[in-house]
């Protein structure tokens, strides 16, 4: 929910503390809900039937094992209590650099890239991240390959090589990672924030690292620093490991103990951070930042007392939920009504050893830019209102009740995500609370909440204003960011301190959307079935037979060829939908808090509507949303604000990282349903409120309805959803269904399309289309892409050091197979990258593939296709995608499996050669020139608005 989105969410990807800001937690038992505590007393939801075991190895390493019999995937994560906060001052970024180096060979597995190839060949993925206090390494893999994967993984922490030959190469990779994000506004904002901190605090340092801070010109010294850091910070007693697998607990324990028991326990202790985050004698402070993108945001942050130890009560979560509420009378509601803000986020932004930071961030309108002092004043009025009338036990209990529901009926994430969270939580909570701790909120303490609120005062505020028009006097060269400092006069601060009643502000009312009925439907089936009904809609229904939770997803496609058949109609549809969502936000926000959400979107098929979460009150929410769609409040001020926001988003996409831009442009060139960016900007600019009203009327008059109700639903509930649609929306029309086309590339075709921006890096996305349409080539290229993925990365990134962003894999368009090769580089131009891709493909063809390798990768891809959905939402989404694409037997995966199962080695190699043969290869290259303006890749130029040729692949 947005009330928990703070700078923590923004900075999590920026190598700072990874903080899970769970909004709520349990307080008291609730009727019909129960815990599933296993033999060790680990608190689990009743719906989680897996077996858990916690143990501590003799070397002090904490281990959580999860046995999930029948699981398709296994996963593991090891979390080290050491991060960028431990960097030596003269080697900033060293913890991050060490994270990179651990992947490049160990004594038992010395070949760099071997671990990656093994994981990829067995259907898995891997990664790592470095935060302020932690470094986390993780992977997932086919369940039957877990043990050999663990054997390789464990060696990272037993006997890494830190080969001298890779020190210089990998420090270039770290530098490329830094350079790839120089123009990222979140990184630039963080750089300014760090410049304002107490310089003695370790958070003020440069955590990413580059050639300069890692002293790359002294390779031998850098390697010595690596070895020293590893010895001083990597110790079994500062590590936690989580493993999820299909094996029994005893088998998992044997796998882990025999390997990770060899990790050395150096008996290391963490040194508490004594320095405060801010020099509070220099607060309050106001800084201004000039962004790359056209965005305006006001952030107010407060250093507050340590909150990590208060995980049972979570006072900052309580405050954040009240301050970030979006219902009637909320701070955001008042700011929107005055035309000053678009969104607001509030909550804990940093939380580490001994210190916390609480913040509020407001996305501003152009009008709001002129009223920033008034917005800050309103913030302090809201804080005063919370202090005076917001601290109430019934409010706390309501938040606790919602959190308890979230915990007891939590949606289990993919194993690779779950192991990361659990390994981190082993450092945060007692092992019995490793899952429940994020949701725990069982101790209401009014005085404690008041103490935190008392720290949120004008004289202790750090305020930053990011906008293109701000004044700047200083700069940070490392991120090329200009910023300034505004001196706050005493009168302004005094005004903020004088609070009084603001009539529009009010505390949230009781939440009427909290689920009360948690009963489960009887019966159940694996796939949806069509349901005859009297409402004139196509209705499909599945009552879940597997996950057994009181949740579900109800989908409605309001199909119309008029919704998005041109850039103009798509722009009008998107603005119509966003106006409805904005209008309903205050009413539906409590529903989101209660675990009940909806989504409206416009695409080539029409208007898509989804309701998800607890099924108890979905029909109530669905009716309100659809009524809003049919009869919106056509307010000029709302339209102007939302059109301005949409225009900024479209224009800002030109300032994204080059690899993101080329990947966004590729489908615009390939598919008829993806509109040209310039056309969308022009259409949005030209949109008027009368045009949207007329467009909505036309679209509503020409709709057909297709529904899927999937989850904990009875047939009666499914028919009720259909009745709501029929009751609220106009009678179905008779318009033909919309169509979608995919560009067919001719044999030997080499097309190119460029994107432009101010970024200096070059980038290339090279798409290779299958020689033949259909499932045989799609699965054939699926096997090839799986083979190439790790090898392409190793060759172009690890060996050639072309850049940080290097990727290869499959890129199908429906049943049209394809391969994708992506590189962003600070050291090579786009034409050179194109040649490197071509050289790689030729080497790969020349080397050939053995039948044994083919069979292994074929088996891995078959296992991927057979993977069961991890949760109810994933299962429903698969069914909906199948239904929309015409697979009314819901057997798309089964058809792919059948095509791959029958594909012999000889036929596979023949099909791959036909696709990759240089004389017949069908290639589309999307590129960004960067600093090399003359180095244009080869190929026939393709204009942005070029029509799809005759004979392009047609889908309906």
UniProtKB/TrEMBL annotation:
Endopeptidase that degrades small peptides of less than 7 kDa, such as glucagon and insulin. Residues 1-22 form the signal peptide. This is Protease 3. Residues 407-682 form the Peptidase M16 middle/third domain. GO terms for molecular function: metal ion binding; metalloendopeptidase activity. It comes from Spongiibacter nanhainus. Residues 223-397 form the Peptidase M16 C-terminal domain. GO terms for biological process: proteolysis.
């Amino acid at each position: 929910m947005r009330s928990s989105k703070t700078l923590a969410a923004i900075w999590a990807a920026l190598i700072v503390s990874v903080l899970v800001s769970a909004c709520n937690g349990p307080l008291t038992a609730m009727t019909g809900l129960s815990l599933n505590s296993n033999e060790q007393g680990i608190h689990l939801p009743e719906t989680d039937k897996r077996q858990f075991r916690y143990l501590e190895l003799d070397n002090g390493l904490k281990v959580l094992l999860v046995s999930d019999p029948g699981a398709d995937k296994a996963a593991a994560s090891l979390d080290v209590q050491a991060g960028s906060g431990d960097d030596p001052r003269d080697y900033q970024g060293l913890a991050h650099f060490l994270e990179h180096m651990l992947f490049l060979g160990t004594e038992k597995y010395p070949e760099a890239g071997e671990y990656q190839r093994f994981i990829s060949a067995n259907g898995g993925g891997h990664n790592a991240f470095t935060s302020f206090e932690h470094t986390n390494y993780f992977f997932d893999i086919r369940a039957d390959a877990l043990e050999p994967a663990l054997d390789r993984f464990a060696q990272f922490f037993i006997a890494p090589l830190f080969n001298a030959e890779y020190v210089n190469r990998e420090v270039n990779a770290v530098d490329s990672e830094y350079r790839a994000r120089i123009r990222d506004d979140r990184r630039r904002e963080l750089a300014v924030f760090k410049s304002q901190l107490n310089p003695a605090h370790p958070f003020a340092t440069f955590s990413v690292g580059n050639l300069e801070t890692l002293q790359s010109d002294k390779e031998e010294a850098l390697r010595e620093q690596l070895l020293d850091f590893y010895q001083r910070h990597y110790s079994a007693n500062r590590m936690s490991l989580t493993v999820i697998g299909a094996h029994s607990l005893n088998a998992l324990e044997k796998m882990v103990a025999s390997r990770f028991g060899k990790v050395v326990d150096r008996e290391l202790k963490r040194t508490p951070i004594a320095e405060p985050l801010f020099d509070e004698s220099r607060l309050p402070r106001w800084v201004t930042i000039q962004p790359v993108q056209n965005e305006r945001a006001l952030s107010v942050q407060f250093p507050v007392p340590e909150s990590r130890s208060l995980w049972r009560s979570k006072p900052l979560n309580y405050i954040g939920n009240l301050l970030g509420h979006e219902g009637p009378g909320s701070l955001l509601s008042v700011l929107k009504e005055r035309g000053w803000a678009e969104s607001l986020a509030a909550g804990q932004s940093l939380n580490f050893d001994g210190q916390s930071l609480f913040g509020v961030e407001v996305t501003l309108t152009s009008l709001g830019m002129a009223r920033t002092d008034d917005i800050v004043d309103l913030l302090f009025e809201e804080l005063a209102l919370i202090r005076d009338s917001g601290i109430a036990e019934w409010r706390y209990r309501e938040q606790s009740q919602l959190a308890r529901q979230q915990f007891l009926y939590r949606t289990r994430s993919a194993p690779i995500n779950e192991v990361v969270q659990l390994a981190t939580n082993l450092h945060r909570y007692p092992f019995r609370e490793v899952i429940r701790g994020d949701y725990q909120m069982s101790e209401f303490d009014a005085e404690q909440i008041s103490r935190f609120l008392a720290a949120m005062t004008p004289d202790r505020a750090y305020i930053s204003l990011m906008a293109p028009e701000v004044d700047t006097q200083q700069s940070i060269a490392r991120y090329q960011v200009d910023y300034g400092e505004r001196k706050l006069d005493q009168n302004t601060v005094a005004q903020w301190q004088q609070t009084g009643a603001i009539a529009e502000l009010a505390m949230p009312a009781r939440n009427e959307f909290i689920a009360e009925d948690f009963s489960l439907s009887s019966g159940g089936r694996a796939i949806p079935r069509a349901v005859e009904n009297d409402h004139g809609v196509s209705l499909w229904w599945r009552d879940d037979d597997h996950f057994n939770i009181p949740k579900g997803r109800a989908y409605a496609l309001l199909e119309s060829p008029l919704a998005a058949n041109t850039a103009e109609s798509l722009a009008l549809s998107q603005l119509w939908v966003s106006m409805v969502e904005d209008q309903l936000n205050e009413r539906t926000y409590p529903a989101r808090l209660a675990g009940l959400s909806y989504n409206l979107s416009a695409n080539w098929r029409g208007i898509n509507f989804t309701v998800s979460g607890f099924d108890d009150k979905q029909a109530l929410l669905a009716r309100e949303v659809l009524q809003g769609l049919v009869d919106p409040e056509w307010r000029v001020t709302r339209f102007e604000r939302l059109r301005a926001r949409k225009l900024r988003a479209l224009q800002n996409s030109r300032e994204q990282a080059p690899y993101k831009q080329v990947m966004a442009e590729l489908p615009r060139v390939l598919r008829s349903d993806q509109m040209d960016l310039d056309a969308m900007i022009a259409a949005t600019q030209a949109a008027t409120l009368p045009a949207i009203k007329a467009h909505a009327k036309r679209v509503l008059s020409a709709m057909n309805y297709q529904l899927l109700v999937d989850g904990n639903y009875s047939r009666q509930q499914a028919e009720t959803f259909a009745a709501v649609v029929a009751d609220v929306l106009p009678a179905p029309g008779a318009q033909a269904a919309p169509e979608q086309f995919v560009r067919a590339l001719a044999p030997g075709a080499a097309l190119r399309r460029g994107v432009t921006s101010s970024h200096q890096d070059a980038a290339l996305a090279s798409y290779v289309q299958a020689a033949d349409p259909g499932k045989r080539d799609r699965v054939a290229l699926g096997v090839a892409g799986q083979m190439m993925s790790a090898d392409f990365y190793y060759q172009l990134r690890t060996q050639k050091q072309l850049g940080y962003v290097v990727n290869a894999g499959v890129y199908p368009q429906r049943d049209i197979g394809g391969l994708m090769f992506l590189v962003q580089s600070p050291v090579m131009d786009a034409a050179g990258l194109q040649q490197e891709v071509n050289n790689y493909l030729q080497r790969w063809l020349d080397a050939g593939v053995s039948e044994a390798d083919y069979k292994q990768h074929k088996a891995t891809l078959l296992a991927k296709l057979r993977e069961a959905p991890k949760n109810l939402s994933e299962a429903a989404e698969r069914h909906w995608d199948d239904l929309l694409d015409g697979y009314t037997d819901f057997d798309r995966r089964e058809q792919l499996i059948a095509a791959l199962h029958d594909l012999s080695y000889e036929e596979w190699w023949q099909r791959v050669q036909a696709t990759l043969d240089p004389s017949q290869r069908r290639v589309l290259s999307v590129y960004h020139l960067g600093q090399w303006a003359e180095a244009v890749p080869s190929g026939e130029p393709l204009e942005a608005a070029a029509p799809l040729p005759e004979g392009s692949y047609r889908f309906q």
